[in-house]
Amino acid sequence: MKPSLILTLFLCFYGSCGHSQHPYELKVTSDNDNYCLQLHDGYYTNGLFLTLNYVPNWLSKRIRETGKLTKITSSYQLGQMIFTPGVISPTLSRDLIDRPFAGYLFAEKGMTFFYKKGHVLKTSLSIGTTGPNSLAQQSQFFIHKTLELDLPKGWQYQVKNEVGINIQGQYWHELIPESWRRKWLDIHATSQVTLGNTFTNVSAGLLFQMGLFEATGQSSLYGARIDNDQSSSRKPNELYVFFYPSYQYQLYNATVEGRFFSDNAGSVLSPIRHWLYKNDVGFVYSLPRWTFQVVYSFKGREATRMRQPENYVSLATSFRFGHQNH
Question: Which of 222, 223, 226 is nearest to 244 (CA)?
Answer without folding.
Answer: 222
